[in-house]
Amino acid sequence: MMVELEGVTRRRDDKLLLDGVDWQVQRGEHWVLYGLNGAGKTSLLDLINAYFFPTQGKVTVLGLEFGKTYLAEKLRSRIGFVSASVQQKLPTHDNAYEVVLSGAFASLGLYQETTEAIDQQGVDILQELGCLEYANRHYHSLSQGEKQRVLIGRALMANPELLILDEPTAGLDFIAREELLESIAAIAKKPNGPTIIYVTHHIEEILPEFKKILLLKAGRVFASGDTQKLVTSEQLSAFFELPVNVMWNDGRPLLSKARSNND
After folding, report:
1. Mean pLDDT of the chain
2. Domain-ending residue, one of 159, 194, 214
3. Of the residues 4, 113, 216, 250, which has the maximum number of CB atoms within 10 A of its CB?
4. What pLDDT digit, counting tens, does each position of 32-61 carry?
């Protein structure tokens, strides 16, 4: 079991961020965590990354139960995390190759001596993600799509068991988004690759490789299970409390608002 949450509640001051969340992620499954802004997605990710403990409930991630052991460093070295918060913390002087290599040490910036094996792994990852041509460019001079590819490369350097992608296509145009999604699909198809949790609030980003989905609404699990069974017009109309239509094409869903009789 990669992630197991049982009755997890999280309060901050008087605000209820997560409310009775149950979730199980098995090794080798690829999940979409879907919810609108403010649904609690970030709180759930922070919990999985051991940035805080639950107010109530049981949390076990990668076999480590929260409260039973000091786990922050043990856990984060086994999880690859790609998010805007990571991007903002990277030093401005590192090039793309150095950012990728820093993932081997789970550091924000490359301050350690690397080995020949680490250097070669970094080259291989850059090649795999199509980043090799801008390996020597300063990270902060790259386009947003290029930055996201490099961040994914950084996350893969530690050979993580769990890879969390927090809205990786934010700010990308259509072409850059689809190119990045192709790279993510390739990672998901690897026989011995990491289990992936893909976080989004855009239904059209869901890839065929992501067979499971958790719908999070106001800090609660609205539904979880098979993607094709839950990403339907009926289910999402109930989720949004608004009539919507879902169409599937080539394993990808497309969402639109249902037209009223007056339209």
Report:
1. 93
2. 159
3. 216
4. 999 999 999 999 999 998 888 899 999 999
Which single residue is written with the structure tokens 């792994």? 121
pLDDT greater at residue 80 or residue 85: 80
Domain count, the chain: 2
Please give the structure tokens belonging to residue 250: 């080539």
Question: Are residues 140 and 10 part of one domain?
Answer: no
The answer to whether the CB of 239 falls within 8 A of the CB of 252 is: no
Long-range contacts of 40-46 (CB under 8 A, 24+ apart): 40/216, 40/218, 40/219, 40/220, 41/166, 41/199, 41/201, 41/216, 42/166, 43/10, 43/17, 43/18, 43/219, 44/18, 44/216, 45/81, 45/83, 45/164, 45/166, 45/197, 45/199
Beta strands in the chain (DSSP E): 3-12, 15-25, 30-34, 56-61, 64-65, 79-82, 162-166, 195-200, 212-217, 220-226, 244-249, 252-257
Task: Answer with the residue of higher pLDDT: 125 or 74.
Answer: 125
Q: What is the CATH number of the domain that holds 200?
A: 3.40.50.300
Please check whether residues 18 and 48 belong to one and the same domain.
yes
Tell whether 60 is covered by a domain: yes
Distance CA 203, CA 228 (A): 12
Gap between the Cα atoms of 33 and 37, Å rounded: 12
